[in-house]
Amino acid sequence: MTINRKNLVAASAMALVIAAVSGHANAQSMDYTSLQSLFGEPVTTGATGTPQKASEVAANMTILTADDIRRTGARTVPEALRYVPGLEVTQVGMNNYDVGVRGYGAAFQPRLLVLVDGRQVFLDDYSRTNWANIPVNIDDIKQIEVVKGAASALFGSNAAGGVINIITNHPLYDNDRVASVRIGAHNLLQGDGTVTTKVGDNLGVKVSAGGMDSDQYHQGWDSDVSSFLSDPRQRYIIQNSVYQINPNAQANFETSYSESTSEDGVFGGNEAREHMTSYSVRGGADVQTEYGLISSNNYINHIFNHYDQTYVGGVGAGMTLIVSQLQDQFKLGADHTFRAGLEYRHKQEVFSSTDDLDVPSSPEIDNDVYAVGGTWLWNVNSKLSWTNALRYDHSVVAQGGTVGPHALVPAYAYNQTDNTLTGNSGLVYKYDEKDTFRLTYGRGAQLPSLVQLGFTDAFAYPPYNSKTSPLTAVLDFTGNPSVKPTIVTNYELGWDRKIDSLDSVFKLSPFYQTNQNLVGFSASSSGRVFYPNYWVQYEAENAGNSDGWGAELELKGSNSAGYRWDVSYSYARVIDSSLADQVVQYQDSLPQHDVRLSGGYTTGKWEFDGLTQYETPSKMYGTFEPQYYNVSGRIGYKLTDNVTAALSGTNITRHYTQETLFPAVERQGLLTLTGKF
């Protein structure tokens, strides 16, 4: 909208307060179905808050539509992400995954911000995502937006390496009613369902629920894990309501519960079992005013997780995240769109240990983050647009519990502050109807995890039992509240070209990335002998720098005869500084070369789809893993207009695939029955 003269001064002042609170509330107020029909391709509001074609976003964005997801045969979001060039999905056990981006992989991946309908499901405890615990029905997903490269000023803190933005069907705009059941190898049984109900013309209520049980993979687990190895499971329920108060105002309310058990690979190469329970409550509103679209998004996430780890015993923790976001999106004239916002975050982690050293401590870390900023989208002319964004974070850290006597950091030293500035800038030039060029810059921040800031605990090594064995060694992990955020800077050039003769689009995306102040745990030379035995002290620290470069090439298309294809090649090279190579070890953590060949064919009631992926060797924790290829596929048949049966499988050509140094991923076959009503 155009702001009148009397409001110009106030609107301009707000535009100067720009930061990327990133359209989180807007995600639930847009009718994606109508806009996609209008534009003829997937649309997004994630990058700027205003609807844009995916091809016109000033970021490297790939959108997986609901049809794309269905054809993969995936039962989880990470399995669908295997189809995206530049992402590397590694699996540990039946239901735990890590998603690396552009050569940077880790057992707890800290570089990807993950959102579901505007709510962060990325966990600040270890800076990671527990994919097994996300309360989402994959059949209810409208689209998955994948952004590669630093995007903190567009999407929020911790979007240092990229973003996975999951959008589900809208309770008011979409009449989604779907149920599915899956049975498969390893005694897998999974059921999911979503029901949307309209109350009058103004209220939509959506409820999704589901669960999964299966046996665990048993190929290669360490014998020490057998004492606590358990079968994976998940349970979840989520309610989402949207009420149209009047033509200019809309309110939303959401609650969720999720519980899961999974096997993990954690820092140091230890195998572990994690049981996690999570709750969330979210509420917000969108109001169209003469000053623009004002949006509020507020939520509370609470999780409790418990680890049983090889060698170091059990660890439990409770984490709470409180987020409040307020933003205003408005236009000045026809060509300038602004989004200004404020954000407050409170993060708290309370740790507990079940080891038997009886070290007196009750560590608790509190972190408050105050952010301000926004975006400016300038449509220079019909061919050229320019997007700019800034975000400023002020972080305050405090210790709220009792620090043990073994900690290197005294309690008073936990009172720390840090200020971080991030930004994005991107030019998109539509040369003609066939060629689009994109030049982007991103400065992102990977904030230290709560564990890195304030965790303190000691473990017997090997596991200690005072009645049966002597204490031989102690491992101590100490957080460091003075560690600084990792700053990721990304430079990228993109070229999209439509090739009408092939019914395809060719994409080329070369990039260069720098990473400063990587954070990790390393052995401290200042560790004190607290027990009369060998002592090793691990302390969080900034561990040097890392550079990465590479490119993605992709040819994707479909034709009226029912054929579709997607051929891609990804190259990513990472070089760590000497200290980072010892502590963090991103170099060679993921394959340098990756080739994906996927295709499909639809004829009548039948759908046939498949993916072949080849990767060169990689290294994690100093151990090289062999090159491997993976073949997966799906055959679907429509029994009726509303019921589909599908047979899908992964690792089809081999019994198991060694994706990481942790136990191998075994062949999986699934029979799925899906009904819409």
Question: In terms of topology, how is this protein built?
Answer:
Blueprint: H1 8-15, H2 32-39, E1 43-44, E2 52-53, E3 60-65, H3 66-72, H4 77-81, E4 87-92, E5 96-101, E6 112-116, E7 119-120, E8 141-148, H5 152-155, E9 162-168, E10 178-184, E11 188-199, E12 203-213, E13 233-246, E14 249-265, E15 271-289, E16 292-309, E17 313-332, E18 336-353, E19 364-379, E20 384-399, E21 416-430, E22 435-446, H6 450-454, E23 456-460, E24 473-478, E25 486-499, E26 504-516, E27 519-523, E28 534-542, E29 546-558, E30 563-576, H7 578-583, E31 593-603, E32 606-615, E33 618-620, E34 623-625, E35 628-638, E36 643-650, E37 656-657, E38 665-666, E39 668-676
Parallel strand pairs: 6-9, 24-28
Antiparallel strand pairs: 1-2, 3-8, 4-5, 6-7, 8-9, 10-11, 10-39, 11-12, 12-13, 13-14, 14-15, 15-16, 16-17, 17-18, 18-19, 19-20, 20-21, 21-22, 22-25, 23-24, 25-26, 26-29, 27-28, 29-30, 30-31, 31-32, 32-35, 33-34, 35-36, 36-39, 37-38
**CATH overall fold name:** Maltoporin, Chain A
Low-confidence stretches: 1-28
Percent helix: under 10%
Rounded mean pLDDT score: 84
Written description of the protein model:
It is a single chain. The chain has 677 residues and is mainly beta. It is built from seven helices and 39 strands. The chain has a 22-stranded antiparallel beta barrel.
Summarize the structure.
With 677 residues, the chain is mostly beta strands.
